[in-house]
Amino acid sequence: MHRACGDRGERPTEVTARGRNGGLFVVRICRRICDDRGAPGLGRVASGEPNVLCCKSDGIMALQLRPNCEYCDRDLPPDSADARICSYECTFCADCVESKLHNVCPNCGGGFTMRPIRPAQEWRPGLSIEKRPPSDKRVHLSYSLDDIAAHSARIRTIAPERR
What we know:
By secondary structure, this protein is α+β, with helices and mostly antiparallel strands. It folds into two domains: 1-60, no CATH class; 83-162, no CATH class. 10% of the residues lie in helices and 19% in strands. It has two helices and eight strands. The chain has helices at 94-99, 145-155; strands at 13-18, 24-30, 32-34, 40-44, 52-53, 83-85, 91-93, 113-114. Strand 6 (83-85) and strand 7 form a beta hairpin. The protein is elongated. The termini are far apart. The model is unreliable at 1-10 and 29-58 (pLDDT under 50).
């Protein structure tokens, strides 16, 4: 029985994938669509159709909360109000985003937003900084500073929602 959604059919398939920035993650695939509580419901997948992701796999997807600015290597603890992320969770400090990157992610070209702060207190079971600790893996730029400056200059006049 799939403990997340109660599927009594085949065990879910586990697929290990590598994220854009090199991190590994595991996705569990189950044979039916579950509602937001993991209960079966709307949309059992007919046999022979491709598998779909179960919305209640064992792990809760959470931000990595990377520990540093990829540009200047400044420490960005999990409760930092100065951390900024793009939609791929590339992480930079507010100063670098504003003065060096001009709100252009050097990796994907998207814009940035303030990184949410994970609660210190466990308000719900299993959901806190203690239960879901931040990453300790430091990430650094993949491009030269000249390349980043040219990339930013090329697209910074385009609003992030139009890039």
